[in-house]
Amino acid sequence: MSIPSICYKAKSYYSRQLTVAPPNLPDSHFPIPPQSGVTPSGSPMARRQVLQFPDPRLKQVSQPVAEITDEIRQLAAEMCEIMYDEPGIGLAAPQVGEALRLFVIDTEWAEEEDAERHPQVMINPEFIAREGRVTWEEGCLSVPNFRADVERAAHVKIRALDIDGKEIIEEADDLRAVCLQHETDHLDGILFIDRISRLKRGIYVKKLKKQLAVEAEE
Residue 53 CB: number of other CB atoms within 10 A? Predict the structure, then answer.
């Protein structure tokens, strides 16, 4: 969640509509440090860009990760780096142009200097259960300058693989549950604006078209 992702921004992008205590979150650590790649000549590689609506690649349904290779590990590491740089608390592989069922998440992280980071990689996630309803104001790195209330399950149980291929089964509430659903939606080619009213979505699309037209003229 760009609540920014998540692609979500850590503070301003998520706004809870109900007052509750924050959920207890697992202490998950990424197994390898995110690092920028370099070319064979030693010069830095260009960072992957976060795709933005209406890029058609965001609507593709991602394929399962067949094997966790060094390339997959490097992709996950790069995604963590991008997530924190944007900044966000979640990012899905399709948002950086890779149609794979993988996302990274850190709902504990805050936009503060020297804040602790506990990124978690989830590969081939699937929901085992979803219960209750909650309304949350969401935003997305792939849908810039727009936020809207989205209704989702308040409690979820999810199964996935970590970066070492070990099975994860997690139960989550509130922000964590929203983030997991937001990021899994990306793997199915669904953006949070696909879950709001046609009127609100239409207003955003109209505004975006005007903005793109102005930029094209410059």
Answer: 17
Q: Is residue 4 part of a domain?
A: no
CATH of the domain at 37: 3.90.45.10
218 is catalytic: no
How many folded domains does the chain comprise? 1
Separation of alpha carbons 133 and 188, rounded Å: 21
Is 1 within the bounds of a domain?
Answer: no
Q: Which domain holds residue 52?
A: 15-217
One-letter amino acid for residue 170 of the chain: E
Among 134, 135, 191, 129, which residue's Cα sits nearest to residue 158? 129
The DSSP secondary structure of 94-148, one letter per residue, reads: GGGT--BSEEEE-TT--SSTT-----EEEEEEEEEEEES-EEEEEEETTEEEEEE
**Distance between CA atoms of residues 149 and 123, nearest Å:** 27
pLDDT value at residue 47: 84
When pLDDT is cut at 50, 70 and 90, the band that residue 45 belongs to is low
Per-residue pLDDT at 40 exceeds 90: no
Catalytic residue among 108, 183, 217, 218: 183
